[in-house]
Every structure is written in C-alpha cells, then in structure tokens.
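Worked Example 4.2. Consider the chain below.
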Amino acid sequence: MSAELWIDAHEAELRTALASLRAQAGTVGGWGHRLADRLRAGGRLLAAGNGGSAAEAQHLTSELVGRFLAERRPFSAISLCAESSSVTAIVNDYGVEEMFARQVEGHGRPGDVLVLLSTSGRSPNVLRAAERGRELGLTVWGLTGRAPNPLATRCDEAVCVDAPSTAAVQAVHLVAIHAVCAAVDERLGATAPEPHSASALPASPLPAPPVPAPASASGSRLRRVIA
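Applying the procedure from the previous section yields the following structure tokens:
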C-alpha cells in the first residue's frame, strides 16, 4: 500500500474513532476535573502501558509535571514504564506480569489515580496493575480499544475507542490525553501564558571588538636590534 492510500484509509478510521471518543466526552471531562481535585489535594497520578501506549503514558505525566496549555504549579505524576532500572529489576526478579503492579504498590496511595493504556485491553502486565491498584484503593481508569475487553472490566471507568486498527486507537488515545489535560486546566482556572514574540525580546548587544595589547618597551627594543 502506498503512503497516500494508507493516509486515506487512516483518515477514514480516525473519523470513526473520534466519533467514538466524542460520545464519551463527558467521561473524559469528568476525569480531568476529578484528577485536578486529587492533584491539588496532594494526590499523585501513575500511568503505564506497553510500546506506543508506554510513550503516551509518559506524554500524559509530562503534561502534568510540566504544563499543557495553561500556566500552573507542577503536579506529581509518574510514568511507570519510564523507570528502566526498576522495570528490568522487577521483570528479572518477579516476572513480566509484576512489571507495573509492583511499582503501583510502591508509589500508589489510596485516592491516587492510576491510568492504564492498552489498545487491545489484554496485556497481562497492565491487567495485573489494574487489579493491584484497586486492591490498594487507587482510582483506576483505562484507555483501551474496542469494548468489551478485560482491562475495561478491571477498571473503575474506561474510555474504549472503537477503531479497526492499533494506529487509529493510539492516535485517538493521544487526543483523549490532551482533552483530559484541558479539563484539568479548566478545573484549576489556569490561564495560558502570553506568547513570546521576537520583538518583545531584549536585543543582545554585540560584543566589542578586542583591543590589541600595546607593545612593551622591551619588545620595541628587540625589534630595533633585529632590524
């Protein structure tokens, strides 16, 4: 398949997937508002997934520790898939299914929020993390592909994207993540910073040209002797 044909097919899939997300906009907005309340009260967000979903989990936490669109204070958010030393040690000692669950047990506290991403909704290490999170009193939210799936049933709430391909599900998961962050900002009353413009930046003065050092008297006498 050529790139052009793939883009055409992907565009059609995205229309279906975005319509699925739009139908769940109330859930997404509610997540953002409740997450803002938890974070403002000192809670923490944990996030995890595999492969492309791992990248999106890290994207979510970076928006909270940094910022999305509006200026606000940083919040505690940890991507469990980014802890490479912890991940490899846990897999080596306890097996792959404990990869995220053990970190949830170590970092999570009752009332914290755990967001788990899986396009299939069937990854064993993500399922184990959902189970552990609920056992420990965390609020567990899932971003998955088509329902029904095992992850959705193990979460307190899930947004299930109806799309025929992994690529379309992942693309719309990113839209959902950004929508959650927008709702967080809305809840906090955060305001977007003024954009920087080149004209507003102070001009940097050009460095002065170097001043040649004056010749010493001994150097002048040496030149006369040589001449």
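DSSP finds nine helices and five strands in the chain. Residues 197-204, 217-227 have pLDDT under 50 and may be disordered. Compare this with Example 4.1 before moving on.
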